[in-house]
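Collaborator request, handled under Task 6.
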Amino acid sequence: MGEVKKLSVLKVGQEGKIKSISSKSGTVLKKRLLDMGCVAGCTIKVKKLAPLGDPVEVIVKSYSLSLRKEEADAIEVEI
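Structure tokens returned to the collaborator:
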């Protein structure tokens, strides 16, 4: 079993499997992330970071997705 971290702390090129989406993020954000394909067990890779770390560009299911830092904070990944 790997280490669990928030997606927002991963560096460019790191990847992991989505463990969970925090319930503290609210149901609207959780539903939005699920609708975009961020589901548990799915591999997610950090592709790019903006200079101040917001937004974060990730690859999920072979497509690119830009997430705000608070959205990336809600996603816990196992690396």
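The cover message to the collaborator said: "The radius of gyration is 11 Å. The beta strands are 4-6, 15-21, 43-49, 56-60, 63-67, 75-78. Please let us know whether this matches your experimental observations."
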